[in-house]
């Protein structure tokens, strides 16, 4: 019986293999691009950031109680981080404005924001979005507020929103003034966990003295907003939120009055608690005396929500994100120190009445936590206010 030679298998030359790989990659990129949901983030990136090239890969990164997170890789190698939400665009416009103002200081590592606004009507990704530079790809679990029951996805048209570049605060003057930013807190008694964007080279917080030095340079930077820079006023160009609580930022020329009305009394009104209100009034009556040693207070840009979950290092450089920005007294930045683990290396001040001011700034955040979560935070607020009322 004659033997039958086995069939010959064609083996492509290296160049042929390379061309085949290139064709497959191009086909995959084309397929990825064509599979983008209409009216979504990837479509916006391709339309408005043409130098980045086509979006070749979009990855869901989970979400919080009110937003979904995603990363988007492009042909050029550019990579973007995005948040989308079922809520209106105000929350992202506030976050974008704050991040842009922080970025303009060129001190801490802050993601550059490209756009915040509404998604087009019919978008499956929600009602609003924000796009910023991607600082990395590592995700870590962080407790977040559960999404409210009954919250439904609805449809909305694109609005011009706000497109931001370094050093630019281009606000939409027609935008509603109440804004919202993400609630990311370790104090929720019944947290859910979401995979939240954290850079691949996002290290531990690093040296606190180095972080403190960068933070001081940020506080000393010339304000990017005219009201603070030219007129020495306190507040911000838009209202935003601290956690999920509205944070009013209407401009004011007197810091003591601003913090009394826009921070302490604002939180007391939200609490609607007679005990807290009575003690709070005794506290605010003492405020002018505690600030007398400070002399003239200049407005510094504040991150506004500086706790351990919002700071770290990127490539060895101090970084911060998820802010509640406004212009105020630099000492107010440390109101969340009880939640950040800061040591004396971060805040070595010892001047007269510093301790009273430190407690006052902490009180604002404790009142906010009481308004958000209730529980034992009321007792802490009462203890702080009793100690301040006697000074």
Automatic annotation (TrEMBL):
Record-given protein name: protein-ribulosamine 3-kinase
E.C. no: 2.7.1.172
Family matches, as InterPro entries: Fructo-/Ketosamine-3-kinase, Kinase-like_dom_sf
Ranges of Low complexity composition bias in the record: 25-35
Top-level enzyme category: transferase
GO molecular function per UniProt: protein-ribulosamine 3-kinase activity
Biased composition, class Polar residues, residue ranges: 182-193
Reaction equations catalysed: N(6)-D-ribulosyl-L-lysyl-[protein] + ATP = N(6)-(3-O-phospho-D-ribulosyl)-L-lysyl-[protein] + ADP + H(+)
Originating organism: Micromonas pusilla (strain CCMP1545) (Picoplanktonic green alga)
Lineage, opening ranks: Eukaryota, Viridiplantae, Chlorophyta, Mamiellophyceae, Mamiellales
Region Disordered, residue ranges: 22-42, 166-201
């Amino acid at each position: 019986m004659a033997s039958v030679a086995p069939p010959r298998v064609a083996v492509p030359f290296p160049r042929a293999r390379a061309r085949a790989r290139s064709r497959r990659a191009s086909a995959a990129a084309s397929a990825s691009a064509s599979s983008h949901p209409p009216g979504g983030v990837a479509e916006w990136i391709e339309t408005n950031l043409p130098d980045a090239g086509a979006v070749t890969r979009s990855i869901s990164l989970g979400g919080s109680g009110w937003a979904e997170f995603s990363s988007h890789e492009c042909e050029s190698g550019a990579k973007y981080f995005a948040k989308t939400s079922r809520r209106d665009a105000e929350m992202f416009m506030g976050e974008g404005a704050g991040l842009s103002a922080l970025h303009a200081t060129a001190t801490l590592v802050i993601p550059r924001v490209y756009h915040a606004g509404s998604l087009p009507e019919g978008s499956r990704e929600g009602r609003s979005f924000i796009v910023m530079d991607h600082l990395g790809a590592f995700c870590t679990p962080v407790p977040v507020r559960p999404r409210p029951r009954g919250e439904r996805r609805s449809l909305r048209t694109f609005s011009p929103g706000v497109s931001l570049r370094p050093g630019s605060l281009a606000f939409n003057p027609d935008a509603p003034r109440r804004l919202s930013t993400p609630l990311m807190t370790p104090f929720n008694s019944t947290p859910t966990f979401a995979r939240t964007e954290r850079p691949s080279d996002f290290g531990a917080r690093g040296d606190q003295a180095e972080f403190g030095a960068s933070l001081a340079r940020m506080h000393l930077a010339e304000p990017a907003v005219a009201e603070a820079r030219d007129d020495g006023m306190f507040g911000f160009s838009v209202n935003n939120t601290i956690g999920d609580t509205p944070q009013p930022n209407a401009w004011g020329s007197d810091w003591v009055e601003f913090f009394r009305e826009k921070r302490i009394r604002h939180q007391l009104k939200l609490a609607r608690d007679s005990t807290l209100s009575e003690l709070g009034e005794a506290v605010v009556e003492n405020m002018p005396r505690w600030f007398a040693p400070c002399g003239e207070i200049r407005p510094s840009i504040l991150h506004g929500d500086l706790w351990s979950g919002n700071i770290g290092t990127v490539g060895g450089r101090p970084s911060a994100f998820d802010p509640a920005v406004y212009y105020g007294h630099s000492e107010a930045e440390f109101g969340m120190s009880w939640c950040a683990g800061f040591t004396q290396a971060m805040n070595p001040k010892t001047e007269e009445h510093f301790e009273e001011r430190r407690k006052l700034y902490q009180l604002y955040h404790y009142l906010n936590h009481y308004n958000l979560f209730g529980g034992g935070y009321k007792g802490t607020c009462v203890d702080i206010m009793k100690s301040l009322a006697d000074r």
